[in-house]
Amino acid sequence: MYGAPLSGKARKMLLLGSGELGKEVIIEAQRLGVETIAVDRYANAPAMQVAHRSHVINMLDAAELRRVIEDEKPDLIVPEIEAIATATLEELEQEGFRVIPTARASRLTMDREGIRRLAAEELGVPTAKYEFADSLEELKAAVEKMGTPCVIKPIMSSSGKGQSVCRDFSEAEACWETAMEGGRAKKTRVIVEEFIRFDSEITLLTIRSVSGTSFCAPIGHVQKDGDYIESWQPHFMSEAALAEAQQIAAKVTDALGGWGLYGVELFLTGQGVYFSEVSPRPHDTGLVTLVSQDLSEFALHVRAILGFPVPTIRQLTPGATHTLKAVQETADYTIGGLEEALAVPNSQVRVFGKPETKIGRRMAVALSTADTVDKAREQAAQAAAALRLEYDGR
Ligand SMILES: Nc1ncnc2c1ncn2[C@@H]1O[C@H](COP(=O)(O)OP(=O)(O)OP(=O)(O)O)[C@@H](O)[C@H]1O
Ligand SMILES: NCC(=O)N[C@@H]1O[C@H](COP(=O)([O-])[O-])[C@@H](O)[C@H]1O
Ligand SMILES: [Mg+2]
Questions:
Q1: What is the top EC class of this enzyme, as a single word (predicted)?
Q2: For residues 317 and 337, what is the distance between their CA atoms, to the nearest angstrom?
Q3: N or C terminus: fewer CB in 10 A for the chain?
Q4: 12 assigned to a ligand binding site
């Protein structure tokens, strides 16, 4: 039971991170009459544009994070990005605040080392081989040991920022530079991973709720430079591979615990399924569920975290998404081509409304449905290609 938003008896949800995924989470929370507060490192972030109110803070600053949470006293603290002072979240949880799914899950997944060691070393789940390095010298030693090609990533980063493939030992230094420039937090530690030649990769959305653990149909995706370009649902896979994927997802999400939706990233290979990483929150590739399922990943997350049942998840149709990414940096951009994009049959567009473009920044997504995944992918690509960004009036 709860009262109306802003009434004093409202259920209050505070989102840490306010991008395109948070925007949909807020919309779903508001559909259930929840009071919403959006927090991020910059003003007018997408979720701030739909929340009841917002705060701009450095979420990696423990004191600032604590101040906002103590002032707002939310019933639910919902991390939406990795780069948060998670030690503070653990303290706040000890003091009685609820962190989604748990403060420990957000600490373990905020850096690649925490989740990788949990999955590979404690749970015994198959992963790429890996090493960690804190300096260029250590990186060179790790690359020598691992062999090339290998993948190098800052331990704290997302959407492929700072990630590169080292194809030859001579590239190690350039990879180190890329990682130092691209990491979200000013940390110098990197992970060096064996390059997995997968046949395909999927996200298995896994929901932990009062109804138990449920899975959405697997989502296939294509990534470029570590960031997603297109996704589709369902991704065809054998019954055996799906069972293996669900087993890995259940193991990892059970170990992380709490209520909410997780995006479990897996590589499908001839030698079986490999765990890659997991988001303790809705996943970018899962945007497809906005058109393919009766309850989107955002609706499912909100239901689960409020303690409501998730009795069934129905996939309504094959669906696909295709992203629109900026190629220049400016605070003076316009987006066009919507007339043409929306003329593509069974297609929709989400324009995120980010105040600035940056090179590689995701600004919008096209979503399509069709009788087949191939057709849906084709339509989504066509709709996304119709969208145009203009920079500084050009
Ligand atoms: N060890 C690997 N072998 C082969 N490809 C890899 C490996 N690690 C990552 N990749 C590729 O790079 C993509 C991004 O990697 P990863 O998910 O680790 O980065 P990320 O920055 O956390 O991305 P996001 O936040 O968008 O999930 C993967 O989806 C995959 O396509
Ligand atoms: N892969 C994770 C992911 O897609 N996260 C989404 O991107 C936003 C950051 O975008 P920005 O870097 O453009 O500000 C995050 O806030 C989240 O919505
Ligand atoms: Mg990933």
A1: ligase
A2: 26
A3: N
A4: no
Token representation of residue 297: 């990943």
Q: Has 285 been annotated as catalytic?
A: yes
Instruction: Tell me the C-alpha distance between 98 and 305, whole Å.
Output: 10
Ligand-binding site membership of 163 (annotated):
yes
pTM score: 0.97
- The protein residue with its alpha carbon nearest to ligand 1, atom 12, reads 226
pLDDT at 186 over 70: no
Buried b (16+ CB within 10 A) or exposed e, 56-86: beebbebebbbebbeeeebbbbbbbbbbbbb
Pocket of ligand 2 (CB under 6 A): 17, 19-22, 80-81, 158-159, 284, 354, 361-362
Under the banding of pLDDT at 50, 70 and 90, the label for residue 267 is: very high
CA–CA dist 336, 355 (Å, integer): 15
93 part of the active site: no
Is the per-residue pLDDT at 259 higher than 90? Answer: yes
* Active-site option among 347, 362, 368, 377: 362
Integer Cα distance of 334 and 141 in angstroms: 47
Q: Is 261 helix (H, G, I), strand (E, B) or coil?
A: strand
In the chain the domains, ranked by start, together with CATH numbers, are 12-99 (3.40.50.20), 129-194 (3.30.1490.20), 200-391 (3.30.470.20)
Tell me the Ramachandran region of residue 353: left when phi exceeds 0, alpha when psi lies from -120 to 50, beta otherwise: left
Q: Is 90 annotated as a binding residue?
A: no
Give the separation between CA 258 and CA 237, rounded to whole angstroms: 29
Is the ipTM, as predicted for this complex, more than 0.95? yes
How far apart CA 28 and CA 146 sit, in angstroms, is: 45
Query: Is the per-residue pLDDT at 319 higher than 90?
Result: yes
178 CA to centre of ligand 2 in angstroms: 19
Strand residue runs (E) in 295-346: 319-325, 333-336
Question: DSSP letter at 308?
Answer: -
Respond yes or no: is residue 347 known to be catalytic: no
Q: Which of 394, 329, 388 is nearest to 361 (CA)?
A: 329
CA distances from 91 to 112, 113, 154, 359, 393 (A): 21, 21, 26, 36, 48
